[in-house]
Amino acid sequence: MESAALSAISRHLLRPSSNPHHNSTSEILPLRSFNVAPLRRRFNSLSTKCHHASSGNSSANPNFSCSAVASDTAAPASDNVSTPQLRLRRLVDEFVSLEEPLDRVKLLLEYATSLPFFPASARVLSNRVMGCTAQVWLSVSTDGYTMQFSADSDSEITRGYCACLIAVLDGASPEEVLKMHPEDFAELNVVGSSGKGGVQSRVNTWHNVLIAMQKRAKAAIAEREGRPPVDPFPSLVISPGGIQAQGSYAEAQAMFLSPVESKIKELVSVLKEKQIGVVAHFYMDPEVQGILTAAKMHWPHIHISDSLVMADSAVKMAEAGCRYITVLGVDFMSENVRAILDQAGFEKVGVYRMSDAQIGCSLADAASSESYVQFLDNASKSPPSLHVIYINTSLETKAHGHELVPTITCTSSNVVQTILQAFAQVPDLNVWYGPDSYMGANIAELFQQMGALSDEEIKEIHPGHDRKSIKSVLSRLHYYQDGNCIVHDMFGHEVVEKIKELYCDSYLTAHFEVPGEMFALAMEAKRRGMGVVGSTQNILDFIKNRVKEALDRNVAEHLQFVLGTESGMITSIVAAVRELLGKRGTGSPKVEVEIVFPVSSDSVSTAPVDGSHDVASLGVVPGVVAGEGCSIHGGCASCPYMKMNSLRSLLRVCHQVPDEGGILSAFQASRLNVKTPLGRSVADVGCEPILHMRHFQATGKLPDKLVDQILGKNAESMS
To answer: How far is 385 from 388, CA to CA, in rounded Å?
Structure first.
């Protein structure tokens, strides 16, 4: 549901090389002559007068004034001195003079016939432009001061797009290429009659070919200025022939993707013998996930997912006869599993965590702080108010919050629709979201963007809203500003700048918890069909869908994805991609999928690797063979808390149950028998916001009980 909402917003708001063995500078070829005379002759034939204004033609481009055109055309009319902006103005002028969409398409096809010859030898993966429905190839030549482009496609419409871009940008300086924006071409208004999906795919073509041109321009500037090549992020390349790791961090991840068979057999044997189910979060250690993924083929009661689904899966396992549930996650996840099992009548099913120490979570800790209590106290003084709390918090936090302010939980997949529905359903409502500050800021930014849409476009996102209602809610949306996930916090300025330089033409995935700069970059990629913003499941689904589309095209492909979330996702991604690639018969065109791991400089260890150092003094989590490491602050997008769930602990717990001697007492998930300040069971009150969310997911509306609580009509139910 959330992915659709974000897609609608990005739709209306208007890699290094696809070959992993090519870096950004290897494609900068020696300067060569390039004949665009057939395209330029068209511009020479255009009038430089602002004839639209004089004729009263309302279809003229409103961004181009007569005075501006007159000023530019006062210069000599030679193509050698005409700027890309002037050439674009002439191009737009020509297209907008045609009132009928079919005539504009015909003109585009005429441009396609003028596209210079593109040799078959240049139709290679390193020249492919990703994100286009058709196959598009782009070749670049430069001396560092002038860019020369050639392109081709297996679609005539797309060839026309490429011809227009080349007519405008060929011969420009790298700086002039970088000044061009995708929106500058929107006035061409070539939409055809293929429906919304076709229109959007054509807009994406403009965007993605231009982005590819600009990536080459950035590389040309860097080479001209003598800057050394920027080292790429580590990555894994998945192909039908296996997995190739690039960079030591990727090697550490890949090490466990082919688990030891004896470990698989040991785990499966004890799970079957003692009827143990396993629920694990996507962010688990790669060794554990590798073993679990393989073991699942022999024992069905293993499930790897995001936090919400873990408890549901545990109930299904108990219903199927499992006597014990092992939870691989942080403590609030095991608490949730325990409480949900109890509510479902499975009090006798044992629930075990994977450490005798606390397995914390920075977000859950933020929601239990004094400042968060103060945040909720302010909410309670501003009726009517609704507290929307992220699912990744403890039951105790949910319970205490619900007694202060009527509360509903949310996930990164449904938070936007939850808040929009609440505003639509309860007049003059104040919404208080927490504890993730980045997600709160991203939600506020989304609503700001929605305010610029038309009423019709907003109703596609949520039928209960229009421009007036969206603008009215902006002042009534409050979010906590002192909480974040230590993993997603690392996707800051340094990482974003490197993505812009090396991976601007790649598919970009980002969790909703990332900082605003990364969020904006992912939303920009999403607008041109090259990105996703959402939950871990949204990210996995996006990658799978892009791979399916590539396989359906039945041509050689190299798809590159930047993984904007915890690196533990890689095991599930590899398993899904391998399954898809395995369905292809021998002799099919080769499809490769590259997963890029953003690593900040905070995650680079300069300590010796000869064993002479004291590991306890390092700011890294051991496990990486050299160079790159994992900062305890999440510098390599790897959660140190999640990594406390080891294979050794899982096997120990499984072998030890039933725990007749009490050896595993510290491993048992907490059963919350404590009371809230109002004397109610924490487990009961803490589960109620979750039940409210489940009602919303099933019906699309807030439950009447919650609405009554918000309006103060059912105060006794809160006490």
So the answer is: 10
Nearest to 423 by CA among 454, 378, 465: 465
For residue 49, the model assigns a pLDDT of 34
Is pLDDT of 332 > 70?
yes
Using the predicted structure, report yes or no on whether residue 7 has a pLDDT greater than 80.
no
Q: What are the residue ranges of helices labelled H in 255-356?
A: 261-274, 286-295, 307-319, 331-343
Contact 112, 160 (CB under 8 A): yes
What amino acid positions are annotated as catalytic residues? 132
φ, ψ of residue 63 to 5 degrees: the values are -80, -10
What single-letter DSSP state applies at residue 620?
Answer: B
Tokens of 507: 């598919």
| Nearest partner of 188 among 170, 204, 176, 206, judged by Cα | 206
Q: Is 398 left (phi over 0), alpha (psi -120 to 50) or beta?
A: alpha
- pLDDT tens readout for residues 455-468: 998 998 999 999 99
What tokens were used for 257? 């993707």
Across the range 653-669, mean pLDDT stands at 92
Distances (CA, A) of 715 to 405, 423, 687, 711, 712: 11, 21, 18, 9, 5
Q: What angle do CA 630, 631, 635 make, to 5 degrees?
A: 85
Query: Looking at 424-433, 512-521, 570-579, which range is the least confident one?
Result: 512-521
Task: Encode burial over 667-678: b for 16+ CB neighbours within 10 A, e otherwise.
Answer: bbbbebeeebee
Percentage helix, strand, coil for the chain under 3-state DSSP, each rounded to 5: 50, 15, 40
379-389: string of b/e by CB count within 10 Å (b at 16+)?
beeeebbbbbb
Query: pLDDT at position 17, please?
Result: 34
Give this prediction's pTM. Answer: 0.72
